[in-house]
Design a protein that fits this description.
361 residues; alpha/beta; Rossmann fold; Dehydroquinate synthase-like, alpha domain; four-stranded parallel β-sheet; 13 helices; 18% strand; binds nicotinamide-adenine-dinucleotide; binds glycine; Dehydroquinate_synthase; metal ion binding; zinc; DHQ_synth_AroB
């Protein structure tokens, strides 16, 4: 097992990464009150709920659970309210802990419930998808969707501890594993070209689910995220670099309709567009773009999106949270492993980069 810390002063917390982690031992110091509400969904709960309930019972805790239906479409106010119903009807108090057992959807919802129930209770993340292990469980962004926008209602809520158990990835569908690898590749492209070389050596084994290599990939990814979050918790600057590929990706996701492409798949093609534009701006070489596409393809991720009318693509991009004072800012690459956030790019070159990485209509 490896341990990393997110250094946030008094709110500093560990991320435990390994296989067959022992929740009884690892959670003991972090469950501060007596009551624990485990929030999960109807896919993950049958697989892993009992294991965590037993560990918490062994610690002498009072354990209840709230099992939500599985899916991004339920990440909304109505289903958030079911968590509050469960907390209130079980008589949970201000010392209670909400434990998220699931992927990013469950982590974001349970975290927001923990941030707002009785103005804030303790929170623990047990991420069970690769995407949630390398991204959403770390850094404290929580929230729900609104019919008018994804993740538009939320709060920052850092957990007490994160347990990332590679053994739980065994049951994850291969497409979800690849979607998580998109975010892993993102860390390499934005900040660590040596990690990119490592990924190129091991990507086939990662896709095949090698637990030792996955643990190393999660560790290296979380180390990047933890460092950035420690410097810029509330995204005043550097944290926006974590959105490499996301502005293009959100346009793809929004146009296709949520759930048609997974978030990681859209981010993958978005990173190709960002690399292509960085090349058109003279920052990356064509070989760098080819290298970006190659690692994405080897992770079983798409490098082109379906044909999307340019005006619609641009309209979806303009709804991005990185639009400041009406001006679009993009995360691009000055070189492989060195991302920047910039508003200084030729819009025509951006349009060329979008069109070049779509299927023909
Ligand atoms: P998800 O939570 O929908 O999980 C994907 C699928 O895998 C679901 O069907 C889930 O039930 C299933 N699953 C989860 N763990 C499993 C396991 N071990 N075995 C078998 N099946 C399992 O999706 P995700 O990709 O984990 O997260 C996406 C969500 O995360 C989005 O809502 C996105 O907005 C959010 N997100 C948040 C942040 C953040 O910083 N808070 C960052 C990135 C993404
Ligand atoms: N997923 C981007 C962030 O946490 O900032």
């Amino acid at each position: 097992m490896q341990t990393l810390y997110v250094e946030l002063g008094a709110r500093r917390y560990p991320i435990y990464i390994g296989s067959q982690l022992d929740p009884e031992q690892l959670l003991a110091p972090y469950v501060l009150g007596k009551q624990v509400m485990i929030v999960s969904n109807d896919t993950v709960a049958p697989l892993y709920l009992q294991h965590y309930e037993q560990a918490l019972h062994n610690l002498g805790k009072t354990v209840a659970h709230c099992i939500l239906p599985d899916g991004e479409q339920y990440k909304n106010i109505e289903h958030l309210n079911l968590i509050f119903d469960a907390l209130l009807s079980s008589g949970f108090n201000r010392d209670c802990t909400v434990l998220a057992l699931g992927g990013g959807v469950i982590g974001d919802m349970a975290g927001f419930a923990a941030a707002s129930f009785q103005r804030g209770v303790y929170f623990i993340q047990v991420p069970t998808t690769l995407l949630s292990q390398v991204d959403s469980s770390v850094g404290g962004k929580t929230g729900i969707n609104h019919p008018l926008g994804k993740n538009m209602i939320g709060a920052f809520k850092q957990p007490q501890v994160v347990l990332a158990d590679m053994a739980q990835l065994k049951t994850l569908p291969p497409r979800e594993l690849s979607a998580g690898l998109a975010e892993v590749i993102k860390y390499a492209l934005l900040g660590d070209v040596e990690f990119l070389t490592w990924l190129e050596q091991h990507i086939d084994a990662l896709v095949a689910g090698d637990e030792t290599l996955l643990a190393e990939a999660v560790y290296r990814s979380c180390a990047h995220k933890a460092r950035i979050v420690a410097n810029d918790e509330k995204e005043q600057g550097e944290r926006a670099l974590l959105n490499l590929g996301h502005t293009f990706g959100h346009a793809i996701e929004s146009y296709l309709g949520y759930g048609v492409w997974l978030h990681g798949e859209a981010v993958a093609t978005g990173m190709v567009m960002a690399a292509d534009l960085s090349c058109r701006l003279g920052w990356l070489s064509e070989a760098d773009v080819a290298r970006t596409k190659n690692i994405i393809q080897r992770a079983k991720l798409p490098i082109k999106c379906p044909a999307i009318p340019l005006d619609e693509f641009l309209s979806f991009m303009s709804h991005d949270k990185k639009v400041l004072n009406g001006q679009l800012r993009l995360v691009l690459m000055r070189q492989l492993g060195q991302a920047i956030i910039t508003k200084d790019f030729d819009v025509e070159l951006m349009q060329q980069a979008i069109l070049a990485n779509q299927e023909k209509a």
